[in-house]
Amino acid sequence: MSAKALGPGRRGVACYALLDRGSKTELGGLPSAPIFKGIVVTQHSSTGSLASLVQPAPASSEPLNREDLARAAESLSRLFGSPQNLTDSEAREAVDVLSRIPGTNFTELWADPKGFRQVWNENQQLFVGSPEALPLEESVYKAWTGDRSHPLAGEKGMAWGDPASHMLDVLESFGMIPDPEATMAPDHLAVLLEFLGFLIENRPPEEIRSFCGDHLDWVHELRKEAEERDLHQAFIGVVDAVESLAHHIISTSAWEKNRG
Questions:
Q1: pTM of the entire structure?
Q2: CATH number, domain at 247?
């Protein structure tokens, strides 16, 4: 069976290859409890933390549908996952979809695709492709393991912990395998967002919400780290967009019957 590129892989950011889109595996049926012992799942609200700095994007006259949400997840995955410079078309796509996520705010710079492209390309080495880059792996921001008998129980700041192990199980259950050319961990933010796009396009709402609660509940910690490192506001704003997207999926239902 030939492998097909998943989500942003269509734009050259393939993190995982999808071998079987017909899998009937449900996230709720996976052994998440034994693997995620001690890792708390929260349903946090949108921070709106840039409200004092920027103008809110105009509200869309129509509710977002599944296609809109999948586009947003895939565009965000591209932003966080590729060391290659954004093209003009990718910048336009990013500005378009991010501006439509409820709760997302934009500066005048972000409203200009060319300006956004320039700022992003000038600053992406701060989080992609550099030894000093800001970590984007879920494991780094959570307890490495919930196993109390383990010497590293409760420790933070290390990659390839319980979240990465759980994501491997999730991906394998859907017939996905790591791309041999990829260097990102399975719980890298780009991979999580890529997989979220797949779920939005293919799976029931309860699974999508479960995934957001399990694997995107740490993004506020990423934002804090970005602020401490004084990263550009464009990056912090895109991190906020991830939180807003997850919050919209968890807290609203209009998108469920809106398949585009």
A1: 0.76
A2: 1.10.3480
